[in-house]
Amino acid sequence: QVQLVESGGGLVQPGESLRLACAASGFDFSRSGMSWYRQAPGKERELVAVINTFGLSTYYADAVKGRFTISRDNAKNTMYLQMNSLKPEDTAVYYCSGGSTWGQGTQVTVSS
Fold it and tell me: What pLDDT does 23 receive?
């Protein structure tokens, strides 16, 4: 069964950091490009970051460039999103995508 499970979300204050993880199973993770998306209340789901199979190529949305870092550990079948200098506008449900499937999402709330 193809499955992605996100973890690491939570409530933080502006300027703080969080690291999200996406654990994959049921498909060849090491051969799959992976992505993070997010969806804020009342807004469409948007692409946040992409990483290729070996992690040598990445892409970031302008809104997170310089603050977020996407990475992966193919030995652990896990992808990460390190989020620094978080802002209230980063508040959203964050989803990982890959292997033709989506995770269930993890809530990130940035508020003072």
Answer: 98
Contact residues for 73 (Cβ-Cβ < 8 A; gap 6+): 79, 80
User: What tokens appear for 84 in the block?
Assistant: 């620094």
Q: Where are the beta strands (DSSP E) in the chain?
A: 3-7, 10-12, 18-25, 34-39, 46-51, 58-60, 68-73, 78-83, 92-98, 101-102, 106-110
Report pLDDT for 96: 97
Residue 78: partners with Cβ closer than 8 Å, 6 or more residues away: 21, 22, 23, 24, 72
> Would you state the structure tokens that stand for residue 68, as one six-digit string?
């977020």
Query: Rounded CA gap, 48 and 81, in Å?
Result: 10
